[in-house]
Specification:
The protein has one helix at residues 2-26, and strands at 31-39, 43-48, 52-57, 63-66, 69-70, 79-85, 92-99. Strands 3-2-1-6-7-4-5 form a 7-stranded mixed sheet, with no helix packed on it. It starts with a helix and ends in a 12-residue tail after the last strand. The chain contains 1 helix and 7 strands, in the order H-E-E-E-E-E-E-E. The model has no long low-confidence stretch (mean pLDDT 83).
């Protein structure tokens, strides 16, 4: 009976470690944040403060969103976050999220 408890604990521990490793691998996809420099039907060039100028490929599967609205294109000058997948050439954009230039909210005061 004691051996079954130990086996059960080891199985639970392995499951937790496996889920953690999967989550770490999944979120290592490249992502970029910056201002759109230029755009074409097949590519988006952004100025990323961390990575410099980055070109990402656009495909028919690339989703472009502003809030809940789906867009067909992003005009230059917009601030975006791009989630991409690695390829042998330029990263391929999976999701382009347009960031609104809303001012930051003031901190809440607790009473």
């Amino acid at each position: 009976m004691k051996a079954l408890k130990i086996i059960g604990l080891v199985a639970v521990l392995l499951a937790v470690v496996g889920v953690s490793v999967y989550a770490q691998i999944k979120w290592r996809a490249p992502h970029y944040f910056g201002s759109v420099v230029s755009v074409s039907d097949t590519a988006l060039v952004i100025a990323d403060p961390k990575d410099g100028t980055v070109t990402v490929r656009l495909t028919e599967d690339t989703l472009i969103k502003r809030g809940t609205e789906t867009l067909s294109a992003v005009p230059p000058g917009e601030t975006v976050v791009v989630f991409a997948k690695r390829t042998d050439t330029d990263p391929e954009a999976v999701l382009v999220r347009v960031v609104d230039d809303a001012p930051p909210r003031p901190p809440r005061h607790r009473q």
